Amino acid sequence: MTAITLVAAGAVTGVVAAVFGAVLPRRLRVTAAAVLVWAACSFEAAAAIHVLAVGRPIVAHSQGLLPVTGADVVLNPLGALFVLLVVMVAVPATMHAIGYSRHGLDTRTAACVLPLFVTTMLLVPAAGSVATFLWLWEIMALTSLLLVLANHVRREAARSAGVWYAVMTHLGASTILVAFLIVAAGADGQSFAALAQHARHLAPGVRALVFMLAVVGFGSKAGVVPFHVWLPKAHPEAPSPVSALMSGSMVALGVYGVILVGDVLLGGGPAWWWLVVLGLGAISALFGALHATSSTDMKRLLAYSTTDNVGLVFLALGASGLFAAAGHPMLGALGLVAGLVLVVNHAAFKGALFLSAGSIQAATGTTDLDQLGGLLRRMPQTGALFMVAAAAICALPPLNGFIGEWLLFQSLLHGAAIGSTAGELAVPLAVAAMALTAGLTVVAFVKAAGIGLLGRPRTKSVEVAVEVPATMRLAVGVLVAACVVLGVFPMLVLPAIERAAKAAQPSVGLTPLVHGVNVQLAGLRGLLAPAELTLALMVAVAGVVTIRRVLARHPAPRVLQAWGSGREIQTARMQYTAMSFAEPVQRVFDDVLRPVQDLDVSHSAESRYFVESAIFHSAVDDAIERGLYRPVIRAVRRWGQAARRLQPGSVHRYLGYGFGALIVVLIAVAVIG
Amino acid sequence: MSTVSHLVGTGLVSGVQVVAVVLGGPVLVGTMRKVRCRLEGRVGPPVLQPLIDLRKLFRKQRMRPNQATWIFPLAPVVLVATVAVAIAITPLVTTQPALSSSSDLFVLVYLLIVGSTVLALAGMDAGTAFGGMGSSRAVTIGALAEPAMLVTILALSIGAHSSNLPAIVQGTLAHPGSVATPQRLFALGALVIVIVAESGRLPVDNPATHLELTMIHEAMVLEYSGPDLALVTAGQSMRLALLLGIFVNLVAPWGLSTSTQSVEVVVGLVALAAKVAFVGITLSVFEVFTAKVRLFRLPELLAGAFVLALLGVVSGLVVR
Predict the structure, then answer these.
(1) Complex ipTM above 0.90?
(2) What is the dihedral sign for C-alpha A98, A103, A105, A108?
(3) Distance CA B215, CA B224 (A)
(4) A582 and B136: CB-CB below 8 Å?
(5) What does each C-alpha distance from B39 to A609, B36, B285 come to in angstroms?
(6) What is the pLDDT of residues A268-292, one digit of tens each?
């Protein structure tokens, strides 16, 4: 069987899965679709592994598949890495969907569209020409939109979220289209190879325009500030497996798009391009992390955290381009590897976190942190898996998040002295942004895990919550296992990532890492031995436990009430809430977050010294949505209202418009002709 | 054969470092308390009191709040284990501890963050108001201290072209003049503030307070008692000793052994004890004249540390 057959077989299986999802009875459709999606994933994964192993791209062309242009497949190692990333999220997400299906995924539409969504994501990185890419990109956008709207009948907010997502994704698609058209206009054909050939001869201004349009377009898909507004709206409304797919893999394809245009098509650019990318990344990381700390809904928190993680990826890509532009191709390659590692890590832990949020939603009916609590006792396995994934996203060693942050820090450290003033100022600021982001991520996830899973349950439905079915736990477990393996044995995966980076920057052709058990930078002083570190930690934990056991005289602990300052009865309302936990951060950063707070005290009629009731309201809106999008929406609405005056309903007036337009056209023809 | 003996040697030295810090940390805390008491005109408890307290606590029965999960007993273990690994790989008495190739400043910082993060989670495990309050404040301060910390690391690492701590220390030993460069001085200034914040000393947190509204660390660990409390206390003093040990070896690495020979290790141990004691006493003299800063004034202090660190990086690049 040739490699292209595998790609085609995957696509066909995906479409068959969609058909099964549409025609089978309700009980079977999600399971059948999921199993077929796994088959499709295996085909595509086999093709991708083949490409990464051999190092040669799969190339094919089919004239009949798409009208006029035909379809082109070019799966190079860079695309293959992203295919594997999609597979890594899609298999657990669809497995989770089986147990989750009665929360909006077992309708005919959803069961049909979900396999299509996965299949297009598997194929986008294999697209070899503008037309093929845009077809797949558009189907991916539409299918994900339909999935965001899966619960639109029951939830008002889903409709509004759908509109926001539709508008943002299509604005993004239009700038991508323009960017491709500018390059393709003079190119010989519309394949990416032809575009890359032609892009070399374009004027610097045109190249910059193409790059910036692509950053805006792909950035809106990736959720970079200020195009992130759809994420915190769409993710809480979408079914959780869909959130996991969108946040883990679809967002990663936005990053793929930036690498495709910036490195593959344009072959790199001047330093200022990359300073823009680095700046966007730093701002996104900080803004996302800050909002994640102050979100009180678990899925909204995860959505903002996606903006934060993608920001770090953009920061790495920006640093990579900056170093390459300053004449340090090796550092450029290292930065790109760091960025790709961050993307892969993000897919693993964010997928796990969204899926466990889905498990919690399925068990309790809510993702509002202030209604949860005490879930680790009630859902021990889901809770423990959430804890590990949260530790991974906080970049705690020895999990995978740490490897990504270490590589990013090393690339910034060694790039600090590149010899250009702007770059040298940007690097320490980038390190600071990365550090503050990491610190705020810890705040956000200690809050999510501590308020949501520990302490006392805050509502009745949480009190009686029970563990979710085994498939849902297994799905999260697979992704958490990926977090552990990527953290302890990163060299199992890093060579493949390096090969992908090499495919993106073919002119460089350098390998920034020394191959072996440890992560070691080639030609630079930097080494990390994650396996040895893990072993040392395990020995230390065992040692401390032994010491505690040997020294203790009373082996069994006594279980008793927690200290309540002398109070006998303690209730869940005495605990800290998500809002109060985040209050210090909110107060320190109130210039950015601008919380809206309102205290309404009504006094007793007899005396002002007695308070009858007090209502405190506090909310953190998205400042960018309020400051940037709301005014535009208001202006458009006003313009629409004004335009309505042209349509009073009078037939005479409409005939007059037609006549006037005809006269104008005739005059125009006369003048020009 | 030589690699095996090297492995055994480095392992032994690392073991010496861990034991020295485990026993020396409480003595350091006791000394700092004594100095402070004397300056305030009190007699103060004996210098060895923290060690005696640890022994007493280890013999008591463990108590667990009824809402707590496995996080609660696990957190003190993880705290001590991560600090112990950090101590083992740090060049405290020799430049060749075990796993010295992994002895990266970045790794050390994140190892310490593991301990504080797990402890913050444990604070919320009992479901009380105090625990949440302490955890919330502790992670906030941790987040605000992190930019200053990593930029400081960057400033210290640029000169050595590596964030590997033995490499930095060996660079200082080879070129003693590099300690007095502006980049190193700015960075060390920032490091002092960061160390104070990270180890919960005045003016950031008052380790002696048990007043509900001012506690940070103490509020977070309020539910711990007996052997678990002993581990938390030991972890905290080990952390202080480790941070001061890193600091003194960055400022004045002299006396540090460059091999794993027993004579040199003993010299290194004595030098480390003397240097850390000196810095610890200076810190406690400073603490006598300082009051705890309000929680919401802390960002200014930590922003100051960040600016110092940034100056360190920039001056390093300008002077070069």
Answers:
(1) yes
(2) positive
(3) 15
(4) yes
(5) 46, 5, 8
(6) 889 899 999 999 999 999 999 999 9
- Residue length, chain B? 320
Query: Would you state the structure tokens that stand for residue A320, as one six-digit string?
Result: 């990579």
Is B80 at the interface with chain A, CB within 8 A? yes
Under 8 Å between Cβ of B107 and B70: no
What is the DSSP-derived secondary structure letter of residue A193?
Answer: H
| DSSP three-state, residue A666 | helix
Backbone angles phi, psi at A615, to 5 degrees: -120, 125
C-alpha distances out from residue B31 to B127, B230, B232, B310, Å: 36, 18, 19, 34
**SS3 (DSSP) at A500:** helix
Q: Measure Cα distances from A327 to A333, A420, A472 in Å.
A: 12, 10, 49
From B68, which residue of chain A is nearest by alpha-carbon distance? A455
Count of all residues that appear for chain A in the document: 673
Mean pLDDT rounded to a whole number for chain A = 90
Element (H, E) at A513: strand A513-514
Q: Are B59 and A551 within 8 A, CB to CB?
A: yes
- Rounded to the nearest angstrom, the gap between the alpha carbon of residue A550 and the centroid of all alpha carbons in its chain is 47
- CA-based nearest residue in chain B for residue A553: B59
Please indicate if any CB of chain A lies within 8 Å of the CB of B215.
no
Task: Kindly determine whether residue A540 and residue B85, on different chains, have CB atoms separated by under 8 Å.
Answer: yes
Q: Are A290 and A282 in contact (CB under 8 A)?
A: no
- Residues of chain A with pLDDT below 50 are none
A242, A234 contact by CB (below 8 A): no
* Whether B307 contacts chain A with CB within 8 A: no
B227 near A CB under 8 A: yes
B308 neighbors B186 (Cβ within 8 angstroms):
yes
Contacts of A433 in chain B (CB under 8 A): 147
Looking up tokens 């940034």, which residue turns up?
B310
Q: Best of B14, B63, B110 to disrupt the A interface by mutation (most A CBs within 10 Å)?
A: B110
From chain A, the residues in CB contact with B167 under 8 A are 525
CB pairs under 8 A between A and B: 272
Structure tokens given for A142: 């539409």
Alpha carbon B298 to its chain centroid, in Å, reads 19
pLDDT bucket at B135, cuts 50 / 70 / 90: very high
